[in-house]
């Protein structure tokens, strides 16, 4: 079976450095210390796939250089490279970056449509949009999550899960489902404005628990209960350092503390003698690492629809950061509707850190109630 693979080599670079995306800000991301992450995550996918005998049945069709050829060249899979323009490289502040565009993604997808049974792409929501606009509903598509937000429903829960879905697709065990393709205005997103756009419904191989959900808006009928929960949590906070995560629920807490915190970023706050002081607004991974030796506590919420605690839109909470935070120092707050499936997800790319977070975790759902939820 022939399967298409397109890699967006710059996807995800804006995550750890608090840029909330990478479109148009690659140079700024590198200036802040970012390095490419998508190729390595694509390699995690291929490494997992190589463990299955079904992997030997695949012949990949891919793009040149950083668009797929480079990562496939590290493995024994059969592949052919579409005759496409030669991809050059840019040297940005000493970091070598493939000089690719969204047009390259669309061109590759259109050229492989007649030859493949499935199109895989390594990227985020912007890449999902480009793939969908080129492929439409002619062939099923599946995202290997390497971006920052990934609010669309066409992504596997992890690169390793993407490999498992491909195997089930080859075995005939994956049904084809219609899944939302969404993207946000990243510039507005960086300024705490959420402007989502739904581009359509792509056909996606679906295996329960291996494919993530799509982002869902908060329910207005839960707002009053969330406000009461936040008020109760505020009264319970002790002196110390807090890493306050993204999302409207935690933003209510930031407002209640009287700090000018971000809606969609991570803020570092110190509470002393009952008063809050904003130490770092819209913190990067390196900012959080400065405080890990001060026994910080994390307060985060769950992304509605996606069900993620760490790994979607808050990559500042990297494996390196979370390695220093005891599980008991993590407080999760969420509206009941966000955990109604009874599971939440974590994915940092570090198996040891993820395993330490898995199991069961208490989620605060009201001023007086918590629910034990399984972390997978």
Structural commentary:
The chain is of the alpha/beta class. Helices cover 27% and strands 26% of the residues. It contains 12 helices and 18 strands. The protein has helices spanning 26-31, 38-49, 69-72, 102-112, 125-135, 159-171, 186-190, 223-236, 248-257, 285-289, 319-322, 351-357, and strands spanning 2-7, 59-62, 78-81, 89-92, 95-98, 118-123, 141-145, 175-184, 196-206, 240-244, 267-272, 275-280, 297-301, 308-310, 330-333, 343-346, 359-364, 370-375. The strands form 4 sheets. Strands 12-11-10-13-15-17-18-16-14 form a 9-stranded mixed β-sheet. A 5-stranded parallel β-sheet has the order 3-2-1-6-7, sandwiched between helices. Strand 6, helix 5 (125-135) and strand 7 form a beta-alpha-beta unit. Helix 8 (223-236) crosses helix 9 (248-257). The longest helix has 14 residues, at 223-236. The two termini are 31 Å apart. The relative contact order is 0.11.
